[in-house]
Structure formats: C-alpha cells, structure tokens
C-alpha cells in the first residue's frame, strides 16, 4: 500500500435548480468580472445560459461570454479566451458545459496566470506557477473535470491532444444539477457512462497491492454506474439515474478511488487520446473501442486482478483458472458496452481500417515521439502500443 495525499478542494453544490446559486458562488470566490465560457449551443438552446447570466446579474457581477468550445477543445480558442480575459479584466472563469468547456476554461486560466505560451505546459516543457480561478456548471456526467486536476487540449496544427495535471486548476466550485443532463443525446450519455467507468478502471487495474477500502468503493461505484447508466438510457428523464451517474462521475476522477495505490494505469486513455486527437471521435466511445484490446494484451501481467473484476463486478463463477475468468470479465465488459451501443473496436468507432502508417503515427505520438512509455499494469512501449491498435481494428 502506498502513502498518499488526498486533495479534493472543490465545493460541490448538487441538486435541482443549483445553477441559480452560481452568482453567489462566484462572488464568494472574490470574482469581480466573469468569463462565461460555453460550447456549441446546447446550453443556449436549453435556456441554461440565460439562467446563469441572470444569476450573475442578480449579484451585480459583470461578465463577458465566449462560446464555441468543441468536443476535444482547441488551443486556438484558448488563446482567444486568454486575449479576451486580459482585455476585459476578467478575474473568474465560469465553465457552462461538459469536460471540453471546463478544460478550455482551465487552459485559459493557466494562460492568464503564467507569462509564457500555455501550450508549453501541455508539451511538458514548463510547469505552471498558478491558474486563474475556475468554476463549473456541469451539463454532462463524463470527464470528471469538475473535480479533477487535469485539463486536455488539442493543438490545431498536427492534431496533438495533450493533458496537463496540477492542483492549481481544480475547480473552486462545481454546480451539479442532474436535470441539466436530460437533454443529452443518447450517444453522449453512453460516452459519459463509459468514461466514468474507465476513470475508475484505469485506477483499479494496477499491478501492485491496493487498499481494500479503495477497491471496495471502486467496485461499488462501477456496479452502480453499470446499473444507472442503463437506466438513464432507458429513460433520459430518470432523475435518480442521472443523479447517481453525475455524482459517480465526479468521484471517479477526483482521486478518491486510487487512494493507497499508484495513480493508475492510464494506458487506455493515452492510446485513446491519439485517436480523438487525430480523428475527432468522442473520448468515451474511443475508450470503449480500445479497452478490450488493451485488456487482452496486458491480461497475463496479473490475471488475478481481471478475475477479481469478473467476480465482483459481473458475479461470474470461479473456474479455478484466473486467466479464463479474467477473459470472461473482459468479455462481460464488452457485452455491456455493446448493450449501451458503444463500439468495441475501431471499425465500430467509425475510423475505418487504419493503415500501418497511421498506426505508426498514432503510436509515435503516444510515446511523445520516443520520450516515454505508458501504463503501470504492464509498461508499454511503441511496439506494444502498435500491437494494441492493430488488435482493436
Ligand atoms: O457543445 P455543446 O453544444 O454543449 O454539445 C456538447 C458536445 O457536443 C454536448 N452536450 C453537453 N452537455 C449537453 C450536451 N448536449 C445536450 N445537452 C446537454 N446537457 O455533448 C457533447 C460532448 O461534450 P464534451 O464537453 O466534449 O463531453 P465530455 O464531458 O465527455 O468531455 C470530453 C473532453 O474531456 C476530456 C476528453 O479528452 C475530451 O476532450 N477529458 C478531460 C478530463 C479531465 N479534464 O479531467 C479527463 C477525461 O479522461 C477526458 O480526457
Ligand atoms: Zn476519460
């Protein structure tokens, strides 16, 4: 078991109509001028944006708006946001949207608090000295950015998608109203459910001794997400289901479910990130398409862990052979993905058959051009990564 520091400083305001408190929450943080950052239009169409702006006005808080964040958010808009905030004297960043909008806000925050090109953080050339304060009104249960220490941005040229992690960017508050997720398209709900489970599974599949209490919580949350994810797809206005997955999404990625272990494996995420960087696919769908291939590739490093997953998540019987049982667990997970209409290979993901050149480019980018290996459950180099892309075809 590892020593650890658990740090989850985000104030969570959860429940119906919670966005009405957003003006007060910004004020509490000392905001004097707010950037309201949003995506491609869902927040406008639903009337949420108007309600958020009204809540700021009620507190006498001036604001400027910047929309247009796309899924897999772009560096070019981050630069635009930094310029706008400097010009307008903005001192608080409010994300109204999903992981993409929150991440774009966090990157703008880094740009405001550091006097160098913000991409140098994502390129791992510099470390941040701070981040302007960010708050979030979440509209999709998925990425967990509302409580995580992470932001993921895509550089427009070269389609490089990179993350940067530090506690500076943790949201000051997160407003979680499950009703805001009623309008999600079925596909986005399923992508979100997948991402939430994957954030837990990335932490669960590690090749060292873990804490029992952490394992038990992780298994319980995965089971709940399996159950309520289906329920939310069956009835998009099922408040309980929406609420359960929304809270699970935050807990999945705030550090709670890796306490006492290493920070996680994250190979599936790294392998997927190159796919969403290059092809613009939804992150959750990309994870579903890659996970089974990753799992089969690394199974032999510790089959007992996959067997435990099979017994405790899917109640599968023990045959006495952990490799057989582990494989059954992988198949059960893939069956679940199919049941929520998530892809389990790259063809189903819609990226078509990859050429060897594309596989090489994806793997090369994934190793940061030869500067790193990935994974903890089993350490993977470029040839391993290529093999997983090939298996996932
Ligand atoms: O842009 P709009 O019109 O709002 O539409 C969005 C978008 O098309 C739509 N949507 C969101 N809420 C909605 C809604 N549509 C109807 N009703 C609503 N209530 O859903 C689409 C996806 O939104 P996005 O923000 O991209 O989704 P998600 O939260 O899954 O974020 C994905 C991004 O987060 C990154 C991913 O790589 C990806 O770039 N991640 C960030 C992490 C972090 N910061 O900790 C961790 C994750 O592993 C992940 O990498
Ligand atoms: Zn993710």
UniProtKB/TrEMBL annotation:
<dbReference type="InterPro" id="IPR056798">
    <property type="entry name" value="ADH_Fe_C"/>
</dbReference>
<dbReference type="GO" id="GO:1990002">
    <property type="term" value="F:methylglyoxal reductase (NADPH) (acetol producing) activity"/>
</dbReference>
<dbReference type="GO" id="GO:0008106">
    <property type="term" value="F:alcohol dehydrogenase (NADP+) activity"/>
</dbReference>
<dbReference type="GO" id="GO:0005829">
    <property type="term" value="C:cytosol"/>
</dbReference>
<dbReference type="GO" id="GO:0046872">
    <property type="term" value="F:metal ion binding"/>
</dbReference>
<dbReference type="InterPro" id="IPR001670">
    <property type="entry name" value="ADH_Fe/GldA"/>
</dbReference>
<dbReference type="InterPro" id="IPR044731">
    <property type="entry name" value="BDH-like"/>
</dbReference>
<dbReference type="Pfam" id="PF00465">
    <property type="entry name" value="Fe-ADH"/>
</dbReference>
<keyword id="KW-0560">Oxidoreductase</keyword>
<feature type="domain" description="Fe-containing alcohol dehydrogenase-like C-terminal">
    <location>
        <begin position="190"/>
        <end position="392"/>
    </location>
</feature>
<feature type="domain" description="Alcohol dehydrogenase iron-type/glycerol dehydrogenase GldA">
    <location>
        <begin position="9"/>
        <end position="178"/>
    </location>
</feature>
<dbReference type="Pfam" id="PF25137">
    <property type="entry name" value="ADH_Fe_C"/>
</dbReference>
<dbReference type="GO" id="GO:1990362">
    <property type="term" value="F:butanol dehydrogenase (NAD+) activity"/>
</dbReference>
<protein>
    <submittedName>
        <fullName>Iron-containing alcohol dehydrogenase</fullName>
    </submittedName>
</protein>
């Amino acid at each position: 078991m590892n020593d650890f520091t658990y740090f989850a400083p985000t104030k969570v305001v959860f429940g119906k109509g919670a966005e009405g408190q957003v003006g007060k929450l910004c004020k509490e943080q000392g905001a004097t001028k707010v950037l309201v950052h949003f995506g491609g239009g869902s927040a406008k169409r639903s009337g949420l944006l108007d309600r958020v702006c009204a809540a700021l006005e009620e507190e006498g808080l001036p604001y400027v708006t910047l929309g247009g964040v796309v899924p897999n958010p772009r560096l070019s808009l981050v630069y635009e946001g930094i310029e706008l905030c400097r010009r307008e004297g903005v001192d608080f960043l409010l994300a109204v949207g999903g992981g993409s909008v929150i991440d774009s806000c966090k990157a703008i925050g880094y740009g405001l608090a550091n006097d160098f090109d913000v991409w140098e953080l994502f390129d791992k050339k510099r470390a941040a000295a701070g981040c302007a304060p960010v708050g979030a009104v979440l509209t999709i249960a998925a990425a967990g950015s509302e409580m995580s220490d992470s932001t993921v941005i895509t550089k427009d040229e070269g389609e490089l998608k990179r993350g940067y992690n530090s506690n500076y960017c943790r949201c000051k508050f997160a407003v979680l109203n499950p009703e805001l997720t009623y309008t999600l398209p079925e596909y986005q709900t399923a992508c979100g459910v997948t991402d939430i489970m994957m954030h837990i599974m990335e932490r669960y599949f590690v090749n060292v001794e873990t804490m029992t209490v952490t394992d038990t919580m992780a298994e319980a949350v995965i089971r709940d997400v399996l159950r309520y994810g289906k329920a939310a797809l069956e009835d998009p206005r099922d408040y309980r289901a929406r609420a359960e997955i929304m809270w699970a999404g935050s807990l999945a990625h705030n550090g709670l479910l890796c306490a006492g272990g290493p920070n996680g494996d994250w190979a599936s995420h790294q392998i997927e990130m190159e796919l969403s960087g290059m092809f613009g696919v939804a992150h959750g769908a990309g994870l579903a398409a890659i996970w089974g291939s990753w799992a089969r590739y690394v199974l032999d490093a510790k089959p007992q862990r996959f067997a435990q997953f099979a017994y405790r998540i899917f109640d599968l019987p023990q045959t006495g052979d952990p490799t057989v049982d582990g494989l059954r667990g992988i198949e059960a997970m893939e069956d679940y993905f199919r049941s929520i209409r998530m892809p389990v290979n790259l063809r189903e993901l819609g990226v078509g058959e990859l050429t060897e050149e594309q596989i090489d480019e994806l793997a090369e980018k994934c190793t940061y051009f030869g500067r790193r290996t990935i994974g903890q459950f089993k350490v993977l180099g470029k040839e391993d990564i290529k093999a997983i892309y090939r298996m996932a075809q």
